[in-house]
Amino acid sequence: MVTRLSLRAHGGAIATRAVNWLSRLSGRGEGTVAGGRVGLAICPTLLQQLARGREIVLVSGTNGKTTTTAMVAAGWGGEVATNATGANMPAGHVAALVNSRSLRAVLEVDEAWLGQVVEAVQPAVVILLNLSRDQLDRANEVRQLAQRWRAVFSLRGQRDVTVIANANDPLVVFATANAAVQWCDVPTPWLSDATSCPNCTKPLARDSSSYGCSCGFTKPTTATTILRDELTVGGREVKLDLSLPGLFNRANAAMALSALDVLHVDLGNAAQRISTLERIAGRFETRRWKEHRIRLFLAKNPAGFTAALSTIGNTGSDVWVAINARGADGRDPSWLYDVPFELLKGHRVWCWGDRRLDLAARLDYGGVDVRVVDDERDVPVSSGVVTLLANYTAFSDFLAKSQSC
Amino acid sequence: MLKIAVLYPDLLGTYGDAGNGLVVAQRAERRGIDVSLTMVEMTDQIPEADLYLLGGGEDGPQRLACELLAGQEFAPRVADGAYVVAVCAGLQLLGQSFSIEGDAVVPGLGIVDVTTRRGSSRSVGDLLVSVGDHLLVGFENHGGVTMLGEGVEPLGALRLGRGNDGSVDGYCVDRIWATYAHGPVMALNPWFADTVLAAVLARPLEPLVTMADRLYAERCQTLLRG
Q: In B, residues 144-203, which contact A (CB 8 Å cutoff)?
């Protein structure tokens, strides 16, 4: 083992592996959460002990966690312990660390768990991508999350963690007021949750490149910037030619590279390795389902949908959108009215999922040509690849029933 | 020209509440009525309108929205005959006072005689309200308990959810409707959108078939099943 575990932690680690092995064997899960839960029940300090002696990067934020985590792992090169399946609470972190002896780990962390996980694993670097409305039935208010993050970094302010944070998201800036931060100036199209100052609630004044408030709250000076095709990380220009689509993925890559720069990884090599990534846990992947070829996009909330919609051209192709409102999605799909679905005008849109009627009504009021999929046999086979935008459980359903091309 | 103004969607729009503006405007337009729909942001002057829409928001933005409304020609225009549909935070800030950010009591606009205090737990979940012969479906997510003053009628009786106080939801006075059913309540309930529209236009409306009819039927069926 990379660290000396207590007897109890050793038992916890063995139990974690055993339960996860059984869970995979029985086909009941991906084997990442159940075992971690058992391990933590046997040894509550298991995560602390497994993390000791490792260099750890944490990734949190509303959107882009899984992709950015995969980018850090790929960019780092070699074996990196990671929770690639997206199990982003402590049980998933335990499972990831139990399964690898690597001294390097990158873990994505659910926004609400960030404090506990920072405390437990004492990371070298924390990447904070963005904060916006998501699953409000569970999280209630975005600003409360920002407050909680701020408390985390106030406690740790003077210690060794370096925070890589998005300077264009005022809520992230507010959350890291007391941290040692390397700021990133990356495209952040969704700002509707931070129109008023997170510090004093007065209106934030904005121009195309900055924002500020009379209370003194303002955009910080950045070390990493994306300006058109040019990427500068920590003051150095980096060539980045991603296989993954969208400006939002360039933003994710810029933040991953900033973290790797702090860890003294060669930026050119890291950028090259990140550029070869083509799919991340099914995201952005073209897959086959029945006679259809579909390219899968995960979009879980208004910010994610706004980003994903920007990658759809206006070629008039068919687009599929799938919406559920199960526990992991948030049980309230009101947010559909915050998504600029009007961008889909000119396309024929097929509505899938448990809440396809909520979606269809939204699209209909938005003037989009809309069809409800009541029987999947009615959906014509397109000659090209159909784009599918789906929220969390709807995405998982499509991923499970489709195959790689 | 029917003038609809969505007030401060940048502050009171946490749950897609601005969608109500889109829905009412569309339901009017599809009946051949001339409509103007304005999104009034926090740095804008409030324009004159036939129908004002207020949404839900987080604590800080709710307080700011209330301050901004108090400093503008809003209450006088409502007194002069404008109609209002308010949800969630909007429902609270039209009242005498509300409690947010801990237990601080903030004076409301005092347009309606209701007061809101912080409840012991948040009310989060599906909402089903009997409004006359109709069912109103929606989703609530708020921490308030709202008490109606004398003579203030609730919007309806609860079938599911917590609403104002566990027994009724919202209120309905003169030209104002308010509910805790946040977000696109007008999208989920075509009859409610048309009730408001008919009142503002002061004439009955011809029927309109939209995708939302299927949605409403499905939501009613699902929520009645429990």
A: 182-184, 187-188
